[in-house]
């Protein structure tokens, strides 16, 4: 229960957590040492020294109380006070401080003041601010007297120096440890950046470095990245080769059909066109998100251009006003992202009468939304709809033509390659499907 509550206040970055792991033991150790030393040295030693001085003060006060009058006090106590290095003088009652005085950080002063108040009869006030001595105001039989002696006789000199040294060396050691810790965590950060870049479709140069465990993780990442890149390349080459080889017989079939009568050739030409469309989609799927290089793109102008091209092609597509308070550009593969958005628009106008497109740009995310007024997709089949070669019937009528179930799959792969996701839902505005491509900036 406690750990679940404390997670909200814990640092989320590796630097913050490592610094916390480093600083907590240092601070805790300093507090423990300071408290123990204060109790054992400042308090214990101060009490022993105070008890020694108390015996001398009681001897002096015995002589003060035995004087015939106030004027005789200095002469009568001289023989006892001078060897003890205690100076005694009478003071008017008006010169006696109303309360004890000391500086706020004088821990030993608090201890000796309490001890003097308990063991020295007639004590009126203790002044620990006088430098370099201690002033005691005591009520005697002949009126108030002031007793003065050196502070070093009753407590350790400059007790605050321990705290200064503790804090100073603690800060120095923390800085040294932080520099070393930063050097150890830098390879982990480099590995995280390389993995994040690869997840967004970018190849960032990376060479394993750091501790043995970090090097092992780095080498495993490099091997995994190489295997994935080889697999993608082989898949692309295989599908591209197969699709390219099939274009030749399709072309021959189209030429042969052109020799027939239009009435007989029309259904066969439609089949050839459908097969040509399938091959084009296979090629697009084979290319995936690897086409083009990442570049900075203005998402509003980018989507506006796609919508304009769709309208010129005879599609009923509307671009809504921009949302969000963000501005600037987003790093993406322009050709691949164009194909993803165009696929969503094509699906929207194929299964509905019209479509609406909107762009929401914030400081952290980019969202490109396409909505239609078609039949939509049931919630329990939306994950299935993003799989390759999947047709949903009757939710998405496959008789509309030109679809082999790759449109949403291509959009999903492209969104994932940009470090984002394709989300499907129900459009509250138009009643059909809502498709969102969400990418982190």
In summary, what is this structure?
With 441 residues, the chain is an alpha+beta fold.
Description:
Helix content is 54%, strand content 15%. The protein is α+β, with helices and mostly antiparallel strands and 441 residues long. Among the domains are: 2-157, no CATH class; 291-440, Heat Shock Protein 90. A five-stranded mixed sheet has the order 6-8-9-11-10. Helix 2 runs parallel beside helix 5 (107-119), helix 6 runs parallel beside helix 7 and helix 10 packs antiparallel against helix 12 (407-417). The longest helix has 52 residues, at 14-65. It is rod-shaped, with a radius of gyration of 43 Å. Mean pLDDT is 81; it is low at 394-402.
What's the mean pLDDT score? 81
Largest sheet: 5 strands, mixed
- Tally the beta strands: 11
Write the element-wise H/E pattern from the N-terminal end onward.
HHHHEHEEEHHHEHEEHEEHHEE
Beta-strand proportion:
5-15%
Query: Total helix count?
Result: 12
| Overall shape | rod-shaped
Q: Strand order across the biggest sheet?
A: 6-8-9-11-10
Through-space gap between termini: 35 Å
Rg (C-alpha, Å): 43 Å
Class based on secondary structure composition and strand pairing: alpha+beta
Q: How much helicity do the residues have?
A: 40-55%
Uncertain stretches of 5 or more adjacent residues: 394-402
List keywords for this structure.
441 residues, alpha+beta, Heat Shock Protein 90, 5-stranded mixed beta sheet, 15% strand
List the helices and strands and how they pair.
Elements: H1 2-6, H2 14-65, H3 73-76, H4 78-81, E1 87-90, H5 107-119, E2 123-127, E3 133-140, E4 143-150, H6 160-199, H7 212-257, H8 262-287, E5 294-297, H9 299-312, E6 317-319, E7 330-333, H10 334-351, E8 355-361, E9 365-372, H11 382-385, H12 407-417, E10 421-426, E11 433-440
Parallel strand pairs: 6-8
Antiparallel strand pairs: 1-4, 2-3, 3-4, 5-7, 8-9, 9-11, 10-11
Helix pairs in contact: 2-5, 2-6, 6-7, 7-8, 9-10, 10-12
């Amino acid at each position: 229960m406690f750990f679940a509550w404390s997670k909200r206040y814990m640092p989320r970055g590796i630097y913050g957590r490592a610094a916390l792991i480093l600083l907590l033991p240092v601070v805790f150790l300093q507090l423990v040492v300071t408290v123990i030393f204060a109790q054992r040295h400042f308090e214990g030693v101060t009490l022993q020294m105070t008890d020694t001085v108390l015996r001398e003060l009681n001897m002096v006060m015995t002589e003060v109380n035995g004087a015939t009058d106030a004027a005789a006090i200095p002469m009568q106590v001289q023989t006892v006070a001078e060897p003890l290095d205690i100076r005694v003088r009478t003071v008017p009652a008006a010169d006696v401080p109303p309360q004890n005085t000391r500086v706020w950080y004088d821990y030993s002063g608090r201890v000796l003041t309490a001890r003097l108040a308990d063991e020295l009869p007639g004590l009126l006030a203790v002044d620990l601010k006088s430098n370099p001595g201690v002033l005691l105001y005591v009520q005697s039989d002949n009126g108030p007297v002031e007793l003065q002696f050196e502070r070093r006789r009753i407590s350790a000199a400059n007790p605050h120096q321990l705290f200064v040294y503790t804090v100073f060396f603690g800060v120095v050691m923390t800085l040294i440890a932080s520099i070393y810790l930063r050097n150890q965590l830098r390879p982990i950060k480099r590995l995280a950046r390389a993995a994040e870049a690869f997840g967004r479709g970018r190849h960032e140069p990376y060479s394993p470095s750091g501790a043995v465990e970090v090097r092992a993780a780095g080498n495993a990442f490099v091997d995994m990245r190489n295997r994935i890149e080889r697999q993608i390349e082989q898949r692309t080459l295989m599908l591209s080769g197969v699709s390219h080889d099939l274009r030749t017989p399709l072309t021959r079939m189209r030429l042969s059909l052109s020799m027939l009568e239009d009435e007989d050739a029309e259904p066969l030409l439609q089949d050839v066109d459908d097969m040509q469309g399938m091959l084009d989609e296979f090629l697009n799927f084979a290319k995936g998100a690897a086409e083009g290089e990442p570049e900075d793109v203005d998402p509003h102008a980018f989507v506006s251009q796609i919508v304009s091209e769709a309208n010129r092609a005879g599609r009923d597509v509307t671009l809504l006003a921009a949302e969000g308070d963000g501005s600037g550009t987003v790093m993406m593969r322009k050709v691949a992202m164009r194909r993803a958005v165009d696929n969503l628009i094509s699906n929207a106008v194929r299964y509905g009468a019209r479509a609406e497109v909107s762009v929401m740009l914030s400081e952290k995310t980019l969202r490109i939304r396409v909505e239609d007024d078609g039949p939509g997709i049931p919630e329990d089949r939306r994950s299935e709809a993003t799989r390759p070669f999947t047709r949903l019937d009757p939710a998405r009528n496959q008789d509309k033509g030109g679809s082999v179930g790759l449109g949403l799959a291509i959009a999903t792969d492209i969104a994932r390659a940009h470090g984002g996701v394709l989300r499907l839902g129900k459009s509250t505005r138009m009643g059909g499907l809502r498709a969102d491509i969400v990418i982190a900036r």
